[in-house]
Amino acid sequence: MRHLKSGRKLGRTRSHRKATLSALSVSLIQHKKIRTTTAKAKEARTVVEKLITRAKRAVQKEVDGKAKDVHARREVFAFLRDRTAVTTLFNDIAPKVANRPGGYTRVVKLGQRRGDGAEVAVLELVDYNVGQEKAAAKAKAKGASAPRKRTTKKGKTQAAAEAAAQPKAAATGADRAEASASGAKETESKQG
Q: What is the model's pLDDT at position 141?
């Protein structure tokens, strides 16, 4: 029995596991949303939540008028090993989640991966609904650019239904001659 043995081994040594979780954390901080296996997502979630809490507390101290909390930044950097990720965490993410009492991330299961059957999930920051914002912006832009076509009961568009309802005029001999003459003029102008 594994009493008091928390955490997943992920089939890696301790150093490899630490490097994997660090890389996943950096990717999540930079992209706000990552796709990985469910086990890695759940394990990375615990790490990222602790990092965000650390950054949030440091930023709250700084707001109260005290000096910059360099120690907190160094502790986070010791794990992440990426300056841009640390900067993003302290300058963008921590102030945005300042009022949230925890639960900064969510894991959404996607099903099984086609190649090896591993269960895949999306790990994302809750306050950054990147996918939903893009979808809303895309729908808004699409709705503003082209009006929506109305369909009739039979599934035709209204314009097609109106065109089908009007009787087709039979072309007379004079109309045909005029059309062929205009076609001949266009070919002469292209050749000349």
A: 81
